[in-house]
Design brief:
single chain; 44% strand; 142 residues; 8-stranded antiparallel β-barrel; Lipocalin; alpha+beta
Length: 142
């Protein structure tokens, strides 16, 4: 009985590890044009459950013209939803000031049952955040 329980737990852990392993990597979204107004968002999901987010905003007529904002914290994956958490005491300093706490994104990938030729890019689609500008962005996996 102990062996069966161990095997079941092992298989479950292996399955959940494989799913989160698909998530790990870099995601990016670029908006606008370099000549006038460029916005880039990059997100790195690390294997150890941490993330780093970078927002780059280059407004040629803005003051200041270039703004870089960074955020970091931990991420969890459950039911095709990635949840982001930031602890202000651990993850905030002079550089990392973005608070992505309680932000949520759907992990969108082509279903294994979909046998069509259509291309579905792997992406994270944010649907909840305390930061209004991140709530509806889609970041594509590189």
């Amino acid at each position: 009985m102990k062996r069966i329980t161990f095997i079941l737990i092992f298989v479950f852990q292996l399955n959940s590890f494989a799913q989160s392993n698909d998530l790990v990597g870099d995601y990016k979204l670029t908006l606008g044009k370099e000549e006038s107004h460029l916005i880039e968002y990059t997100l790195t999901l690390n294997q150890d459950g941490t993330f780093v987010f970078h927002s780059y905003n280059d407004m040629k007529s803005g003051k200041p013209p270039v703004v870089n904002k960074y955020g970091k914290g931990i991420w969890l994956y459950e039911n095709k939803v990635v949840s982001f958490f930031t602890d202000k005491e651990k993850h905030f300093d002079e550089k990392y000031t973005l608070d992505l706490n309680n932000s949520k994104a759907r992990f969108v990938v082509k279903s294994a049952r979909d046998k069509s030729d259509r291309i579905i890019k792997t992406r994270l689609q944010f649907f909840a955040s305390e930061l209004f500008w991140i709530e509806s962005i889609e970041m594509f996996k590189l």
